[in-house]
Amino acid sequence: MFEAVGYISHQTEQGVVTLTVPLERGYRIDQQEIYTARVIFSDGRTIRPEQRAAIHATIKDISEWSGYGKGKEEIEMLKAWFKLELIILTGCEWFSFADCDVTTAREYLQLLIDFCIKHGVPCKESLLKRTEDVGKYLYACMVHKKCVVCGVGGEYSSVDLHHIDAIGGAYRATTEHIGRDGLTLCRIHHGECHTLGKATFEQRYNIFGIKIDNTIARIHNLI
Question: 13: domain range?
């Protein structure tokens, strides 16, 4: 066994978290000069039926949109492709939807949702109803200029960057946008937001404002 101490251990007031990895992986850590690692503590929970249903529905939406095929074999191949994507992104092990943990299922589902937002995949229902990480969903919508409620937007439909804290039109060009809370909304839902008011609108759709950072500001031509 190779004891990974120091460069992937974490000092806290309570002590040090030390990882012990198999020898062959320790060799790869040394050769690739890896100095950081992510530690996930499993609480023993396995994938929930709701997660499995949302994953299946989203895979089906992607399959229909892409024309890849609706057969069982094609669906399984598409699932496997996204599993490999998640493994590359997170370094997790190969997993099965029969017994994977809830965190892996959540990350896999979010990967599918991000793909749909980025590529404009039409889905049978709002992805806001499927996501388990509302914050990541809202941020992805802002990055790809999609309405956070209905998903409309992108290259062929305009959306508005709605400021949670209203900015007068005369001052919009000179206002510092970085750090303010915002949402991307289509014209219909933008109007609904102003009609209902901030609190009622956010409660109706279970959403909240996302801090505008440099990435979002550049995409929306605010800087």
Answer: 2-31
